[in-house]
């Protein structure tokens, strides 16, 4: 019997390649897991704070000066007059936020005639609940304060006319709270002008204030 042509002979199959062992996923180290968990916690906390802020966003408080009085007034007659007086104001504060209370940790009061400060004091810290009105009494004593040149003359002129225009300024730090959440500190500035002090009557026209955060 004739042998089949060589080109028709079956070639031997190559040996089966050994299958590669499955690669193992690298194991995460403990510091990596802790760092990742911390980042997730911070991110989730930030989202919660943002949602709380958007839902219960505090509104600017509304301020006005509702009464004013002066006692023990004296201004010396020399060119640079020396002013002594006890100024009393009542500031009305309204918190329009429904769910947010305001904590005033410090509130400094200043009294100006023109650009010159003539008295200052510090109001006690207080908490202001939402949708409520708070009356803040201010006692601003001027003790032998020098009014220079034109300032002294202008003060005497207005005093002789029976009314003096003053500016009340409040500066302080506040925090907002809703439930267990408290915000970081915010600086607040309140400017009330002109607060017209009348020497001829007890009447006083309420003065609206400008509020800045």
From TrEMBL:
InterPro entries: LEA_2 (IPR004864), NDR1-like (IPR044839). Residues 90-192 form the Late embryogenesis abundant protein LEA-2 subgroup domain. It is a single-pass membrane protein. Keywords: Membrane, Transmembrane, Transmembrane helix. GO terms for biological process: defense response to other organism. It is found in: Membrane. Residues 1-24 are annotated as: Disordered. One of its GO terms (cellular component) is plasma membrane. The chain crosses the membrane at residues 32-56. The keyword Protease does not apply. Coiled coil: none annotated. This is Late embryogenesis abundant protein LEA-2 subgroup domain-containing protein. It comes from Cuscuta campestris. The lineage of its organism: Eukaryota, Viridiplantae, Streptophyta, Embryophyta, Tracheophyta.
């Amino acid at each position: 019997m004739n042998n089949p042509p060589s080109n028709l002979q079956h070639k031997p199959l190559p040996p089966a390649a050994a299958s590669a062992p499955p690669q193992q996923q690298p194991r995460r180290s403990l510091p990596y897991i802790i760092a990742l968990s911390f980042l997730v916690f911070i991110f989730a906390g930030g989202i919660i704070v943002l949602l709380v802020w958007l839902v219960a966003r505090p509104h600017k408080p509304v301020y006005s000066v509702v009464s004013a009085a002066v006692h023990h007034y004296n201004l010396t007659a020399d060119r640079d007059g020396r002013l002594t007086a006890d100024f009393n104001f009542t500031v009305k504060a309204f918190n329009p936020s429904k769910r947010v209370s305001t904590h005033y940790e410090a509130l400094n009061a200043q009294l100006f005639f023109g650009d010159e400060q003539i008295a200052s004091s510090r109001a006690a810290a207080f908490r202001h609940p939402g949708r409520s009105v708070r009356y803040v009494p201010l006692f601003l004593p001027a003790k032998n304060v020098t009014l220079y040149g034109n300032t002294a003359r202008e003060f005497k002129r207005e005093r002789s006319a029976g009314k003096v225009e003053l500016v009340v300024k409040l500066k302080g730090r506040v925090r907002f709270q809703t439930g267990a959440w408290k915000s970081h500190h915010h600086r607040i500035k309140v400017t009330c002008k002109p607060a017209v002090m009348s020497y001829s009557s007890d009447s006083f026209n309420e003065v609206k204030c400008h509020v800045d955060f």
